[in-house]
């Protein structure tokens, strides 16, 4: 009997499709993204876990074979299955999958997890003995490439117009026109990027691959010195107070904004008490180590003083006196009175 799959509730809201088919995606889209963005978006995040283009394309081709042929979605193979298909190790498959996500050509819409007790019983009733759900991926075109608005695409979207074809007209004074966009707060950008890359952040935080879409909603927390730990602790507190948190929210940015609005006072950092407690424990540990070092130095000095006392004048006088006593007893024992007949 075939294995059953976990049905997801509308997880594809903000996820694009691929414009071609599996072969084009694996042989054109992925290598182009690798050459353009590997050094800037993958290598800094995975400094000690490099992945070659050859291995990446192998994993991409294997993933594409499991995806929906028309959209590139609903890709559900396990890492062990991909390792068997490609002949690579499971760790290499994991690195390649992370690289595909960072390059913007694949999205993990649901992270793999263990099945609940109810899900296992339901699976066993239909003959499926699996104990977990594999991650669900969507394979798509490069998120970071500006595509043509025409449905069929256009080569002009990928080319740079020559300078002679460009015209500029000065804006008339007092005329109506769009205002210049203000640059985002650097603190909000830094907080958003760190939160997206934090391992403790929920999977849906990495839906957009970069922190740019989160900048607006995290601008207030960033101004009050929040850290990724504060944001994750806020989400944990939200769940702990009885609120339901979907695995793949339909509008994650709006959900995070709602949680922040419910929190209210941004000056109260959710993880501030835990951080203060850990800092105090660290300071106390350092003070304990310092006391131990002082006690060890004092013990070394006392031991050295004791060793020096063994060769001092008092000890020398005692040794000479004992030697004299032993010599007198020896002489007395070997005299006429002690001689044998």
List the helices and strands and how they pair.
Elements: H1 22-42, H2 53-66, H3 79-86, H4 90-103, E1 106-110, E2 113-114, H5 117-125, E3 132-133, E4 136-139, H6 186-197, H7 219-223, H8 228-240, H9 252-263, H10 272-310, H11 313-333
Antiparallel strand pairs: 1-4, 2-3
Helix pairs in contact: 1-2, 1-4, 2-3, 2-4, 3-4, 6-8
What can you see in these coordinates?
The structure is a single chain. The protein has eleven helices and four strands. By secondary structure, the chain is mainly alpha-helical. Among the domains are: 124 residues, Arc Repressor Mutant, subunit A (Orthogonal Bundle), CATH 1.10.10; 78 residues, no CATH class. The chain has a two-stranded antiparallel ribbon. A two-stranded antiparallel sheet has the order 2-3. The chain is elongated and about 125 Å long.
